[in-house]
Amino acid sequence: RSALAHYNRGVAREAAGEGDAQPSYDMALALEPDHLPALAARGWLLLEGGHAHAATADFARLLALQPNDGAAWIGAGACALARMDVADALASFDRAIVHLPREPMAWRGRADALEQLGRIDDSLHARRQCLALAGTADDPACELAMALSRAGEPDAARRTLAARGSALAQWLAFQLLPIVYRDADEIAHWREHWRAGLAGFDARAQALGAAECAAVLASTPGFFRHYLDDDLLDDQRHAAAVVERMVHA
After folding, report:
1. What CA–CA distance (Å, rounded) separates 134 from 138?
2. Phi/psi class of residue 152: alpha, beta or left (left: φ > 0; alpha: ψ in -120 to 50)?
3. Residue 30 to residues 22, 39, 61, 94: CA-CA distances in angstroms?
4. Is the CB of residue 186 less than 8 Å from the CB of residue 159?
5. What is the mean pLDDT of the chain?
6. Of 27, 98, 42, 101, which Cα lies nearest the Cα of 75?
7. Share of the chain above pLDDT 90, in %
C-alpha cells in the first residue's frame, strides 16, 4: 500500500517500454490522491495517449495544489492545444514562462499557440527564443525552419538549418523550396538542388532508425517540388521509394 512504490513501478514500466504504466499511477493516486509525481506522470501519459480531457483534470489538480509549478502549466497548455482551446493554451504557456523563463518547452508551446491564433511574428519570436535556450538541439531549429517556410520565408528557413546534422534537418534543407521563380535558369538550379538533396538523403535513409524516420515523415512532404515543373514522375518515384523505406522502418 505504498503510493511511492506504485508510482516508481509505473516510471520503470514506461522507461523499459513494458506494457501499460497507467494502472500503477492509478493505484498510486487511489492510495494518495495528491501524490504530485503520479499526477504529473499520469497526466503526460494520458495526453500522449490521446486523452486530453482526462489529462487536463490531472494537471488542474496539480495546479490547485501547486499553482507555481511551471512544468504543470506546460502540461495544461499542451492539453489545451490538444483540445483546440488555443486561447487557454496561450495563457497556460505564458504562466509557465513566468515560473520557468528558460524552459524551451514553454516557449515552443507558446509559439504553437500564437501561430494558431494568426500572430505569426510573435510566434516566430517565440520559436527563436526556444532555439536560443535549447542549445545544440536540432529539433527547435527544424521547427523554426518549417514555421519560416509556412510564413513565406524559405531562404531564412534554409539559413536556420545550416550546419544542422540531424536527418530531419537534412530532409528539410532540400524540401523547403521557393514557391515563385524568376526564370528557367533559377528553376533548373532548384531542380538540381532538390535532386541532389534527395540523393544525399537516400544514402543516409538506409541506416536511419525508427525515431528518426518518424520525425521526417511527420514533418513535410515534397510538396514544393511541384512548383518547379510538371516533369516530375521520375523524381516522385525516387522520393516514394525513400519514403516507403522509412515507413517500413
Report:
1. 9
2. left
3. 12, 11, 14, 32
4. no
5. 94
6. 42
7. 83
| Residue 36: Cβ-neighbour burial (10 angstroms; 0-12, 13-18, 19+) | middle
Confidence of residue 17 (pLDDT cuts 50, 70, 90): confident
Residues contacting 97, CB < 8 A, separation 6+:
70, 103, 106, 107, 110
Using DSSP's 3-state secondary structure scheme, residue 189 falls into helix
Confidence of residue 77 (pLDDT cuts 50, 70, 90): very high
pLDDT exceeds cutoff 80 at 249? yes
Q: Read off the pLDDT band of 100 (50, 70, 90).
A: very high
For residues 91 and 88, what is the distance between their CA atoms, to the nearest angstrom?
Answer: 5
Please tell me whether residue 1 adopts helix, strand or coil conformation.
Answer: coil
In terms of C-beta density within 10 A (0-12 exposed, 13-18 middle, 19 or more buried), how is residue 118 classed?
exposed
How far apart are the two ends of the chain, measured CA to CA in Å? 42
243 near 226, Cβ under 8 Å? no
**Main-chain phi, psi angles of 218, to 5 degrees:** -90, 0
Residue 162 burial (CB count, 10 A): 10
If one counts every other C-beta atom within 10 angstroms of the C-beta of residue 209, the result is 9
Gap between the Cα atoms of 42 and 35, Å rounded: 11
Among candidate residues 70, 61, 146, 138, the one with its CA nearest the CA of residue 105: 70
Q: What is the pLDDT of residues 217-246, one digit of tens each?
A: 999 888 888 888 877 899 999 999 999 999
CA dist 53 and 116 (Å) reads 20
